[in-house]
Structures are given as C-alpha cells and as structure tokens.
Specification:
Length: about 280
Amino acid sequence: MLSYRHAYHAGNIADLLKHSVLLALLDHMRSKDKGFKYIDTHSGAGAYSLRSEFSEKTAEWQRGIGRHLGSNAQHPLLDKLLSAVQTTDTGVVYPGSPRLAASALRRQDSGACYELHSTDAKLLANNLRSQAAIKLYQSDGLAGLLSQLPTPTRRALVLIDPSYELKTDYQEIPKTVHKALSKMENAVIAIWYPVVDRDLSDAMVKALTAGLSQRVDCFELGERADSEGYGMTSSGMLVINSPWDLAQSMSTLLPELAAQHSLDGEPHYRCDNLVAR
C-alpha cells in the first residue's frame, strides 16, 4: 500500500496551480448545457483541515493558500478558489479537487472519484456523503478511467493527480492517457506532475504529447529555480483538449502568483502551448 497522504501538502503552492486550472476547466465544461462527467483518478480525502496534525507538521499551506487568506484576490480564478475555502471558529478547511468539482456539477452532470488509500477513501466518502451525483471507488484510478470512457454524453473532464511515489507512474500515465484518448478523443484531460527531476518530468510531457493532434497547453508554477537539492521546486499541469481561453487566463494569473510565492526573488512559471490545433 502506498503511504502518500495529501493532508500533509493540502493548500500548498502546487494546489494553487492545480486547483486554479481545475476551476477554469469546470467553468468551461459548464459553459454548455449538455452534461459532462468529471473523473478524478487520485481523489484523496476531498477536504482538509489546515489545523490538523498533518498540516501543522509541514506547514506547506502557509506558503500557499495561507498567503492569500483574508485578502482580496485580484484574479477571478484565485478569488473563486478562496471562496471555496471554509473558515470557521474551529479552523480552516481547504477543498480538494473532488469537493471543488462537486460544487460545480449541475443536475445533468455526474462524477466518478477513485482513491486507493483506505483511510482517505473513508474520509472521501464522508466529505462527499451528500453528493449523490458522484460515485466513489476504492480502486485503481487509471484502470477506472479507462472503464468510464466513452461517457454517455461524450463530454468528460479528467483530472489525473498521482503522488508519483512510484517512478513507474511517469511511464504508465502517458500510456493510460493515450488509451483514454483512443476511446474518447475529445476528453479534456488535465495531468498534474511534480518537478523534482526536470529530465524525468520533461520526458513524461514529451511522451504525453507524442502524436497528439489535440490542443495541449502546459502550465508550471514554482518557488525557486530547478535544483537537485530542494526536492520539488515547482509543479505543472498539462491539459489536453485545452480550451482556447485557458491559456489567456493562466497567462495573467501565473505571473502574479510567481511573484508572490518566489523564494529567491525570481518568478518561476511556465505558460506554453505545446500542440496547437
């Protein structure tokens, strides 16, 4: 059993990137009346207390969403994310991707969330207990994704967000994504990845985009320049079948976030179109 628990990292700078992109993609899917299915392959617990022992141990959220709590966000995507954070007398609850998606789903939409870790799967079920439109599976999300496609309405938004504890993820994810696109070529697929070893992440991005004719955009946000001595220095979101206006939104948000979160005085972000359609 893998040991990764996202509770240690919830609300960090990687979540700012991932969830800003996700919110923009959810808005895009809602722009049409026809229903869509949201598929989350690595769901985690769905929501996280930022006063838990996990969050307090790493305090990563303080360098992430914590820098924006109580302030007025200039960018609409950041403002929407801040609005989803629940602040009460007993603490702050940061929403995971399943809860953000659940809040966006309409009557005609549906969801499928996968989580293998037994503890997080139980927490996910509790956090989404009122969301009848979302089915939960304590099983492998990559295999589950392929079983969900094509969706009945031929519209799907997929988030692939593994921990990359297993180095084989860097090879398995491109294989799964290409299989998914062969079953449903218009699926909007967002893949999060860490930048720990630049060569490794670049190789995965190259494998993901190989042979694609769909539009592909790549976004990254980091605290410092690439270095072998600091662990994860940044993270990225690769979006296949990316909406035309996503890059425009991110091109205004990322410079703002990069300047606010830099630890070395230099902004570190990426906003690139890798495959044009």
